[in-house]
Amino acid sequence: DRKLPSRCCQPCASRVAAATGHTVVLVDQTEDILAKSRKGIEESLRKVAKKKFAENPKGADEFVAKTLSSISTSTDAASVVHSTDLVVEAIVENLQVKNELFKRLDKFAAEHTIFASNTSSLQITSLANSTTRQDRFAGLHFFNPVPLMKLVEVIKTPMTSQKTFESLLDFSRALGKHPVACKDTPGFIVNRLLVPYLMEAVRLCERGEASKEDIDTAMKLGAGYPMGPFELLDYVGLDTTKFILDGWHEMDSKNPLFQPCPSLDKLVAEKKFGKKSGEGFYKYK
Predict the structure, then answer these.
(1) Which of 44, 141, 167, 231 is catalytic?
(2) pTM for the full model?
(3) Each residue of 151-182: pLDDT tens digit?
(4) Is the peptide bond before 145 cis (omega within 30 degrees of 0)?
C-alpha cells in the first residue's frame, strides 16, 4: 500500500510515435482525461510545428493535422488491443494493477502483439509472468520529457525472444530515439546509477558533512552536471524517488545502496514532494 506517484509519459510517447508515422491508440480511464491529453498533445505539436515550419505556416498546420489524425483514443483497452502490433503500458507503478491489466489484455491481443512496460522501478519478469507471451514481453523505458529526451532503455528478460528485442530496438530508432540494452535488473541503467547517487548526496547532508547548497554547487561546477542532486530530486519528485527506493529495499533489504533515507521519508510524510508541491529540499514560488 505504498503511495503511488503519477506517471505522465503516455501522451508524450503517443505524440512522438504519431509524429514519426505510427498509428496510435491512446487509452486512459475516462473521456475527460483523454480529452485533456489530446489537448496537451495538440498544444505541444503546435509549438514544435511553429519552430519546424517557421516560414511555412501552412506546412505547420498540415504537420499538426496529419499527426493528430494518427492518434485515436479509447477508454477500453481490451476492445482495441486486437489490432495492435505493440502495447506500451504506462499506468500507475503498482505490480498488482499492472499485472491485472496485462492478464486481461493478453486474452484479447493478437498472437504476434508485443507487450512492453514503461515501468522505471518494477521487475519486467514479474509483469511478463502475468501473461502467456513471456517471449513477446520486454521493458521500454522512456525518459521525460519524451519529445526531448533521446534515450530509451530496452529491457530484455531471460524469456524475451531475440526477435522481440530487436523489434523494440528498431521501434525506438524509428521514433528518433537512441536505444540502449539492459537486463532485467532493479532500476535498469539510469535509475540504478542515479538513485544511489542522489541518496548518497542526501546522506552526506544528513551527516552534516556539507550543506545541500554546497553539494549542488559542487556537482554542477565540479562534475559538469546541469543540476545538483537536491535540485534534481525536487524536479523528479521526492515521492517518486522514495517509491523507487522503497521498492528496491523490499527486493533486497540488505543492499546498502537501497537503505531508507530519513530526511527523504520526513519530507514525503509532510507532503513536500519538490517543485510540483511548491516545496521539497528547496522552496518554490
Answers:
(1) 141
(2) 0.88
(3) 999 999 999 999 999 999 999 999 999 999 99
(4) yes
